[in-house]
Prior knowledge:
Blueprint: H1 2-11, H2 15-88, H3 97-107, H4 118-125, H5 132-151, H6 157-163, H7 168-177, E1 179-180, E2 187-188, H8 198-209, H9 214-252
Antiparallel strand pairs: 1-2
Helix pairs in contact: 1-2, 2-3, 2-4, 2-9, 3-8, 5-9, 6-9
Amino acid sequence: MILRRVIKHVRNQEWTAVCIDFFIVVVGVFVGLQVSNWNAARATQQSERAYLVALRGEILASNLIVEENLELMKITIESGERSLAFLNADEPCAANCWRLLVGFFHASQVAARPINLSVFEEMQKLGLPNSADIKAQMKIYSTATGAFSMTTQNLPEFREHIRGLIPPSAQRGLWRDCHDVSSGKELYITDCAPSITEAEMRTILDNIRAQPELHPQLTYWIGANISNLRLLGNQIVYGETFIAAIDKELGENQ
């Protein structure tokens, strides 16, 4: 329609009308492009917002896992210190034989339940988010996660050594009654009931005490867990700061 009118105006040498038609075409194209760009920007903003909402849930879930690891690590340290005191003392286990054996068992645990950062990684691939503040928080949280993962890549010598000294009959009861994952989270149960005889407990603990290399191995593992407590505590703070930055961004873009 516009083309026919332009041709007609040119044939009739109606140059003012030609200019008006040209102006209408240019304005129409410009407005069309602007509307297209606006729609694309709006779609991108909505997509980023959806990612941020998902990322918030992911970091919140990750922080809960970090808190679980933190609590388990505290039990490992306490159990390790109690076990170390037994190794240092030249006294029989007396009435605490089972509690000591459970302590050695929990001291060998590695609390390193992995966290899921799939949304985080997908956003990085897409070049999101656009917020400089959230990008900075993403980097801090990612670095903290990597630092903790590196400390748990290699299992401690103490873990293999001590478990090699506890016979399967005792380990069966320890795993069944003193450890649990059925609730969706890992639990170290310290007040579990004995599953072997008193004589068996004493024999196992005597064999453990007769291994001098266990002392430095356990001492090292306790220290490593104490260091990891600080890393995990920092990661929880980083996660909370991260979530606050996302909340701020979502609030500003409502």
